[in-house]
């Protein structure tokens, strides 16, 4: 077993107790949302309409479907890539290599799906299987996290994540002990973060849209908007796949239950909540309102993409003409911090753009129910917590220079508000 030298006290996410509570609460919330979305009253805060028995949750076909999906995405990951990118420098000064072929996987999945559908594949039927599919994905995430935990016990200490190496098994199982678990060149965390869950999310959205067309003759305008916006978001993530290599999930967090469940179950089954809601609760949406919502999504996307690209360009090459004129602060590490452009507006402009998009994804569902706004509420909490975690890390990394940045750019996410 790898020694626990350099291990940290388990303080994030409420320590071991918080981690244990989240491991129960997150799957329970996901099943609650799935049940409530199809109920007549669709009340987010009420009790679920019924408690499903094991026969409603367990289906060997659903498990087989989930495993086939993972197998397909893994095969697409292994195809030759247009580019191989290097990750950030690791503790042992080495850099891992990652294939950049996520967008190619999305296109090939769409082609295979098109072929299947023209041969009579009833994609809409997937919408009837969401409960057993979510159960199978949760089961896979639990077993997978357990295997990852066991694997982490035999790797050298330098391969462990700074946060998930506390010595408390519950906490470490939740946060993830090993930073970049791999078999040969297959990187499990990088693979899961962007492919099965994100592509699965748009697949579920599409199935819900097909089912709506079958029930009502054609998809509603609201369903088109939700599908279009979320496809743009997933397509964008896969197109800019390389950027994920600088997120805290890849650089700092281990791969444990939080990310395995988040990537494989939470993202596809809760991020598709608006489309699930619309299938069972059709909402009228006029063209003028639809145009306003498109504008809100466009503004959010413009800020999100602008901010993320500006930082990535700057981190890759500070003398790139697109960022060379921006004002910066020097830090003791040799790295610089941007203090003008998007990063001079607030300290997390990318979060602001993401939140504006989240609002645009809920608005097509009208204002009669709180349920479709769950994503916006959850995402606000996630980003506020994430911002606090990032802030602490930046303070540790950059010290006085970070204080100076906070003085120059006082707002975190929303100008003049937060
Ligand atoms: N849809 C979803 O469920 C989720 C989406 N996201 C999205 O993922 C994206 C990435 O988010 P995340 O990884 O949390 O964080 P960021 O992309 O904001 O990265 C934070 C890092 O950026 C660097 N940085 C911070 N300020 C500056 C500055 N002024 N100049 C230059 N570099 C700076 C620091 O790292 P360093 O200095 O080491 O480079 C810091 O640690 C966001 O757009 C977010 O909205 C995130 C979570 C969930
Ligand atoms: C509640 C729970 C289970 C928490 C786990 C959190 C994960 C769901 C998220 C952590 C960071 C994520 C990112 C994306 C999806 C959600 C998770 C995995 C992301 C892939 C979405 C698309 C974006 O463009 C992105 C690539 C920037 C983003 C990266 C972070």
Automatic annotation (TrEMBL):
It is found in: Endomembrane system; Endoplasmic reticulum membrane; Microsome membrane. Its EC number is 1.3.1.70. Coiled coil: none annotated. It is a multi-pass membrane protein. The chain crosses the membrane at residues 17-37, 57-79, 100-123, 129-150, 255-273, 285-304, 355-376. GO terms for biological process: cholesterol biosynthetic process. It catalyses: 4,4-dimethyl-8,14-cholestadien-3beta-ol + NADPH + H(+) = 4,4-dimethyl-5alpha-cholest-8-en-3beta-ol + NADP(+); 5alpha-cholest-8,14-dien-3beta-ol + NADPH + H(+) = 5alpha-cholest-8-en-3beta-ol + NADP(+); 4,4-dimethyl-5alpha-cholesta-8,24-dien-3beta-ol + NADP(+) = 4,4-dimethyl-5alpha-cholesta-8,14,24-trien-3beta-ol + NADPH + H(+). Catalyzes the reduction of the C14-unsaturated bond of lanosterol, as part of the metabolic pathway leading to cholesterol biosynthesis. PANTHER family: DELTA(14)-STEROL REDUCTASE, DELTA(14)-STEROL REDUCTASE TM7SF2. This is Delta(14)-sterol reductase TM7SF2. It comes from Camelus ferus (Wild bactrian camel). The gene is TM7SF2.
